[in-house]
Specification:
Blueprint lengths: L7 H4 L2 E5 L10 E7 L2 E10 L2 E6 L24 E2 L6 E2 L6 E3 L12 E4 L2 E4 L5 E2 L18
Bound molecules: FE2/S2 (inorganic) cluster.
């Protein structure tokens, strides 16, 4: 797929939330991004004091992972866990630590926190959702059968 360089406007950081919305190992902030022109879900959470963000897509089967909206961590608040078959990921880097995700890794989104706000940064393949883009019909892949 051809890579299109980001324009200055496309590359500017986007406000995600206030820092106070992300408590330590708490509920994530879920947001939408465009990945290669397709709208996908992403999430940001705070772990060990640092905000991290990933595309909300399991490595095992490409489905959204939260077991309730914004709830990604296991009961011990230690791992990101996929609600479908229990793949577990290290929140610090998104690498698989157990379950059917093998050597996979969640796709990271760059974030930065400053002055009480969290911003995410577009990249070649992760971009903001254009204003006014309608929600597509639910075309997310279900679990493989
Ligand atoms: S879809 Fe996530 S563990 Fe299978």
């Amino acid at each position: 797929m051809p890579r299109l360089e980001l324009s200055e406007e496309e590359a500017r950081p986007r406000l995600l939330c206030d820092s106070t919305e992300l408590s330590e190992a708490g509920r994530a902030v879920v947001f939408d991004v465009m990945e290669w022109g397709r709208k996908v879900s992403a999430f940001a959470l705070r772990f060990e004091g640092k905000v991290v963000a990933y595309v909300n897509r399991c490595v095992h089967v490409p489905v959204e992972m939260d077991w309730q909206p914004g709830e990604f961590l296991d009961s011990e608040r230690r791992w990101i866990i996929c609600s479908i078959h229990g793949a577990s990921y290290d929140p610090r880097h998104g690498g698989c630590v157990g379950g059917p995700c093998g050597r996979g890794r969640l796709k990271p989104i760059r974030v930065a926190e400053a002055d009480g706000q969290v911003h995410w940064y577009p990249s070649d393949d992760i971009r903001p959702v254009p204003a006014g883009l309608p929600n597509p019909p639910d075309s997310s892949a279900g679990p493989a059968g």
